[in-house]
Amino acid sequence: MEKNHSYTTEEVANILKVSKLTVYDLVKKGRLPAYRVGRQMRIDPSDLEEYIKRSKGKLQPFHHKETTSDTQEYLQVRRLVISGQDISLDILANYLEKSSKKFRPLRSYTGSLESLISMYQGYSDIVSTHLIEGVSGEYNVPYINKILVNFQYIVIRLLARRAGFYVKKGNPLNIKHWEDLRKKDIKMVNREKGAGARVLLDESLKKYRIPVSGINGYDDEVTNHVSVASAVAKGRADVGVGIERGANLVKEVDFIPLVNEKYDLVILKNEENRELISQVLQILSSDSFRNDLEALGGYDLSQTGQVVYET
């Protein structure tokens, strides 16, 4: 392994052939020493090498070394994994870190379904979700109930936002409804499996009985809203599903609103999370946090901080 640089969590995940969530979990549990550069976690090659040797049984179990005061402080705080892709979660992470010396948030930029699964597996502490159940039109709770079986949890409204189609400027193909995806001359670009936008598309196709096999570009996947909008702007596709803010960030794209989606936070209810839940509720109800989100535009904050469901 190279000795002259530190690794990102993504590089470590590639080396170990595991997911980034697994790397976050190793750091959270103190099995893999790490430090922060800004918001990014870094791992030294020597520490990664020691972890691999310990895993092979060649070294004694890791014990935190008494090094600098910064290292001691880092090891005393609780590392939290906040999973989801919206920029509002980065702002929440900043507020959490400033509000208490006990928390050091880490960000995992994964889709809604994968985020919930990571919570079930113990890898994430706060997850965001915007998953619609097609028949009822209800957001999030039906999926959370199915995945977090036998867990106690709280669901808190972070925000609402409009989702719909990205189309080329001026909408030359007059794409306005899900039924328009039946047209053979329309090519779409899709989100990855498990993303909220992908679930919205799939549930809508099911609702209107539109066969996936007949949609040109259904298997063409990208991993975020801006990439969908960019694919449309560059002519790679005629339409894609995303949120309003994505269209605002990319030139030559118009937005066709279809639904007002609910974007919620999920936190497990246990003794360890008692203070965390209280802190998150306090942050979401603060004027400063709401003002920061409002400045971004494209969000409905009328229910921000409301507990929408708990077990």
Automatic annotation (TrEMBL):
Top-level taxon: Bacteria
Domain Helix-turn-helix: start-end pairs: 7-54
Pfam families: HTH_17, PBP_like
Residue ranges occupied by any PBP domain in the UniProt entry: 94-284
PANTHER family referenced in this protein's UniProt entry, alphabetically: BLL2305 PROTEIN
Descriptive protein name: Helix-turn-helix transcriptional regulator
Species per Swiss-Prot/TrEMBL record: Anoxybacteroides rupiense
Lineage, broadest ranks: Bacteria, Bacillati, Bacillota, Bacilli, Bacillales
